[in-house]
Amino acid sequence: MFAPFNTRIVDWNGQRVWLIGASTGIGAALAQALLARGARVAMSARSQAGLEQTARGNVHAMVMPFDATNPQEWSSTHDSICNAWDGLDLVIFCAASYQPMHAWELKADEVRASLETNIGNVCYGLEAVLPKMMAKAQGGLAIVASVAGYVGLPGATLYGPTKAALINLAELLYSDLKPKGLDVYLINPGFVKTRLTARNHFSMPALLTTDQAAEAIIKGFGKGKFEIHFPRRFTSVLKVLRQLPYRWRFALIRRTLGL
């Protein structure tokens, strides 16, 4: 009953990791932290220049630029990595799109782009990677969602619902895939200082650096957790908030974020 939800990943030497969304932000910091621990990391994003900057010439880094919103590119990129490494041990979905906006600012093209980047890319990736993982009954998937998926946060009109969908997806994936020998990790960061959160115009409580976020994620992998959420001094507050009656919840959210 008290066993870890997933395999504890403590020794990263030789681990074959595919990290999507590795050119900037949390993804770039996590890729570098894993490489420093001896993992082999295939890094993907649209920007080849950004990926090469993340790789820094590390011999264990494989730069694999592609468009994660294109289903066909998933299959070909996955095949290239597996042919080079004879499979994968962990796939980390970290690509994300975020533009703060209010409900009255919604535009159809931005809605489509956010859905494709934040949800569609994960579904396309699952179609590409699951057959081989299930055939071997080993490996893991990690989905980076957000605490913005816990409750309706002001300004996250598109971002929050897509992250809530990823939380739901990770939960059902665990139920589907754990009996088949696969691990599923859900990663819910709080506020992390990136080019995306730089667009926010409100105080961000417990703001972390990308390096701190990467360390928290690796620590969570080491404990075999299902949900890896951080920083706990902030995420724990949100977990309590979503259990409260709406009248209290709405008031406390505005107070917490200084709105």
From TrEMBL:
One cellular component (GO) term of this entry: membrane
Alphabetized UniProt keyword annotations: Oxidoreductase
Any Pfam family hit: adh_short
Keyword Ribosomal protein on entry: no
Alphabetized GO MF terms: oxidoreductase activity
Residue ranges of the TM segments: none
Family according to the record: Belongs to the short-chain dehydrogenases/reductases (SDR) family.
Protein name: SDR family NAD(P)-dependent oxidoreductase
